Amino acid sequence: MKKILPIIACAIFFMNASARTVWVSSAKEIGAQTWVAGDTLIMKSGIWKSQVIKLNAEGTNAKPVLLIAEGPRAVVLSGESRLEIGGKYAVVSGLWFKDGQAFRRNVIEFKKGTEDCRITNICIDSYNPEDPQLSIRWLSVSGIRNRIDHCSFTNKYHLSPTLVIELDTAVYAPSHRIDHNYFGYRKSILDENGKEMNGQETIRVGVSGTSMHYANVTVEDNYFERCNGEVECISNKSCGNTYRNNVFYEVSAGLVLRQGNNCVVTGNYFHGNHKPNTAGIRVVGENHVIAGNYLENLTGTDYYASLCVMRGRENAALYDYSQVKNLVFKYNTFVNCKQAMNISFHNDKPEYVLPPVKSVVEHNVIFNNDLQNIAVKISRPDLKPDITWNQNFYNEGLLVDFPKKDITVYPSSDFEKIVKKEIKDMKSKIKPTTSNTGVSWLRK
């Protein structure tokens, strides 16, 4: 045993000694080999123009492979530069993609099979092709347990989502995490009729074809500001995802559970500031829980309503609108929203006749200063949605095809005290501040 111990000690020494710190000045140097546990690659300061960086890593949890910029704002990727990450346990930090001409499908890509990799403190700003109708994602995430955090994505002006989670049906619940990022100032591309073109989401989790697949993705503590690409800011198209503690500021688009089941939406803040079509949460599918969200000064109606619960279609295809079942909607607060709740909504197409069923709406608060705001509207009441209403409160506002006996009226003076305290508490919780690249967060 005494002879074995020195051998083990020597092996550990040489393992640690094999970790390298390497200064690199081109994509070719980065892609020349597979980097191993503990390796650190430092990208030299300067403008890296039209560099296709391919990082292949075989790190470990204790010793990831690091690809980092020499300093804050030191490494600028421009032209047709892009980044591909493959392997395990890699961390990429400090890069600034600025004023480039994205031309491939993805600017940053976590390749299929990538595991436990991370990008942090990275900024993509105004990285747009000359033709705004080219479909290019800024970030595409495949693999398992990858993370995107403390990054900034601003001024996207071309088709396709900003960030896409790609699902492989051979991988159950890949469990990626998107947290503490800033998404800002997305402009909408319009068609020849002046309407927003489809496919301009900020985040899309899955696609129709894999919408019954469990992704278990967590999207939390992000700040969305004026992300106005299309009606869906976040488009959920998979199962088992969690959306919590995000802020939506002046966003003319909603958090939409478009396809998939068993998702949780909790603790999010929606601030419309009376901007046009500012939206809240739209619901399709089964077994969702929506709790403890705060929605204020939203102007959207129908698809853009603060809460829009959709009607479904019998035997709906994966891409269509399935029936809402077993929805739990509780402890949410609406303040001065033009249309707080629109239940069993859809357009006038005759095939959408399945109202929400076996659902519960309870312990929600609706406060209005404007008597013309709609507190609750039941679309197509003749279809008789099966919803249990329990302990919901409001002061003023219209009830459209909704019986007043199912909601409790409180005096405005009492409500105002409650709402003012809730606003104060909400504003003290989350505050974003910009950093050199990306976003740092202060949580009080």
Report on the architecture of this protein.
- The protein has 444 residues and is mainly beta.
- The chain is 8% helix and 40% strand.
- The chain contains three helices and 46 strands.
- Strands 1-3-6-9-12-15-18-21-24-27-30-34-38-41 form a 14-stranded parallel sheet.
- Strand 45 (430-434) and strand 46 (439-443) form a beta hairpin.
- The longest helix is centred in the last third of the chain and has 16 residues, at 412-427.
- The relative contact order is 0.07.
Task: Give a quick summary of the entry.
With 444 residues, the protein is mainly beta.
State Rg: 24 Å
* N-C termini distance: 54 Å
The amount of beta strand, in percent, is: 35-45%
Number of helices: 3
Q: Write down how many β-strands occur, each being a DSSP E stretch of 2 or more residues.
A: 46
Major β-sheet annotation: 14 strands, parallel
Please state the average pLDDT score: 89
Low-confidence segments = 1-17, 429-444
* Biggest β-sheet: strands ordered side by side in the sheet: 1-3-6-9-12-15-18-21-24-27-30-34-38-41
Structural class: mainly beta
Residues in helix, %:
under 10%
Describe the global form. elongated
